[in-house]
Write a sequence for this structure.
């Protein structure tokens, strides 16, 4: 066939052939490549065997010619047809057009949901809905996978956020994950106000704290804000503890007391100040609990007993080792942004600019959207219009698209879901209409079928119904708005009295 198409060693000049082609000397290999070029420009993705059959050529000759064309950048190899295991070849520009048309078709297939349906989706995605909550240590690990790097009020983690997602939450499960090296905790955005003497106070229940997988710590440290170049205004005790940790590495509380020569209370105050700055952390989450619990409810350092008998079953000296945060190498900016972009997708399932307003650590949206465009081009995520009423690009995980469709098809049954103001799903005023509620642990928002219907602020001193309701309905809404009581074990670990509110 080649000899018939290209007789002789040189092509005979023709009127419609450019001068360059008239004088071109053809070899068998170049002639085969030219035939394949013309075929690939019109047929789209095709296998080697099919291409050889179409041209009447030997498969080995076609393979050699395709490899040469691939080296020139004319053709690309891969698996382009769904369900076909054999390798295919396609002309580069034609493949780009096919890919663009495919993305456009996939985007048009998606019907956007309402803001209320999207909130119902988020309650299931983040395991807050009653029928989607997890159980046991494995369930807690799955929830922490979603909330990896999320910065929330320190006191909200175990009083609201984790118990609302894990049935019969046990603080020992979190301690086990931390002690095993799987989960770490630290403050990532050191912006607490200072005392009158210019120093930072120790952590309080509203201090932002993040829980994260230790292998992702480098990512979060790469994205955290700059702390400034000047020396930190630390107290003498905090400075001594920090120098001891930097010189001797991770140390137990009793070792810090011996190394620094300070009183136990001074070492505890120094650790508390360093935690508030985001400079140190401990092996166990119990270290943070001990610093958050009022002194009258802490386990006495010297081993004495409280008269009232109400004290936490742990202290700062039982928290394992204390260490300086940020010892390992950090990621590059591009790697950190891509890691964060993937984590935001895991956290919300669907991501768009407005949804991320409450995220504490967030690079510019333009950097995130470049990552999402790349992931969409690879087929790892979907782009389109998933939630109606919001402008800009939106992206979703494939499994989230299926769940969104299921939520849209399902009819609301009056499901009531209450979340804390410090919960990452406090999206009133962002996703749903209405005035925003401050991200304070004691504030509560009640949703009915994804629509906010009641708000409570300041330990219930200010309650407001957002919908018209009969007296019976109003009582039911107010009852659902109240924070449900936590288990006695959790209450004991949080250092609360037996009769106090949950």
């Amino acid at each position: 066939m080649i000899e018939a198409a290209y007789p002789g060693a040189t092509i005979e000049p023709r009127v419609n052939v450019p001068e360059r082609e008239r004088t071109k000397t053809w070899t068998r290999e170049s002639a085969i490549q030219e035939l394949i070029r013309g075929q690939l420009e019109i047929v789209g993705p095709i296998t080697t065997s099919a291409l050889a059959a179409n041209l009447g050529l030997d498969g080995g000759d076609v393979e050699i010619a395709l490899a040469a064309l691939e080296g020139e950048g004319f053709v690309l190899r891969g698996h382009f047809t769904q369900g076909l295991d054999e390798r295919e070849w396609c002309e580069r520009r034609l493949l780009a057009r096919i890919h663009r048309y495919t993305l456009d078709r996939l985007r048009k297939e998606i019907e956007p949901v309402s803001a209320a349906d999207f909130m119902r989706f988020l309650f299931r995605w983040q395991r807050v809905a009653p029928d989607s909550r997890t159980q046991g240590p494995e369930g807690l690990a799955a929830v922490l996978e979603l909330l990896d790097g999320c910065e929330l009020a320190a006191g909200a983690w175990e009083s609201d956020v984790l118990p609302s997602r894990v049935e019969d939450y046990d603080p020992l499960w979190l301690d086990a994950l931390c002690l095993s090296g799987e989960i770490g905790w630290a403050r990532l955005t050191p912006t607490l106000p200072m005392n009158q003497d210019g120093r930072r106070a120790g952590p309080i229940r509203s201090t932002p704290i993040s829980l994260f997988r230790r292998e992702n710590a480098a990512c979060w440290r790469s994205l955290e804000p700059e702390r400034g170049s000047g020396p930190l205004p630390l107290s003498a005790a905090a400075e001594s503890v920090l120098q001891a940790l930097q010189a001797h590495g991770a140390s137990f509380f009793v070792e810090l007391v011996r190394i620094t020569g300070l009183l136990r209370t001074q070492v505890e105050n120094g650790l508390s100040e360093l935690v508030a700055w985001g400079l140190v952390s401990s092996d166990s989450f119990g270290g943070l609990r001990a610093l958050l619990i009022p002194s009258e409810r802490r386990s006495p350092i010297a081993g004495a007993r409280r008269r009232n008998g109400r004290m936490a079953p742990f202290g700062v000296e039982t928290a394992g080792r204390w260490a300086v945060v940020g010892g390992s190498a950090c990621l590059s900016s591009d790697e950190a942004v891509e890691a964060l972009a993937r984590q935001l997708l895991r956290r919300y399932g669907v991501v768009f600019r407005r949804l991320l307003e409450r995220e504490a650590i967030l690079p510019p949206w333009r950097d995130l959207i470049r990552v999402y465009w790349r992931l969409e081009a690879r087929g790892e995520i979907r782009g389109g219009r998933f939630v109606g009423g919001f402008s800009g690009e939106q992206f979703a995980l494939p499994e989230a698209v299926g769940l969104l469709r299921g939520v849209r098809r399902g009819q609301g049954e009056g499901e009531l879901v209450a979340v804390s103001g410090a919960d990452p799903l406090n999206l009133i005023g962002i996703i749903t209409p209405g005035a925003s509620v401050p991200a304070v642990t004691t504030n509560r928002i009640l949703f009915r079928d994804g629509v906010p219907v009641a708000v409570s602020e300041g330990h219930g001193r200010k309650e407001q119904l957002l919908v018209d309701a009969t007296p019976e309905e109003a009582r039911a809404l107010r009852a659902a708005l109240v924070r449900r009581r936590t288990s006695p074990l959790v209450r004991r670990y949080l250092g609360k009295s037996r009769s106090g509110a949950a």
Notes: Residues 214 and 452 are 36 Å apart (CA to CA). Residues 2-108 form a domain with the Arc Repressor Mutant, subunit A fold (CATH 1.10.10.10). The chain has 20 helices and 18 strands. The two ends are 85 Å apart (CA to CA).
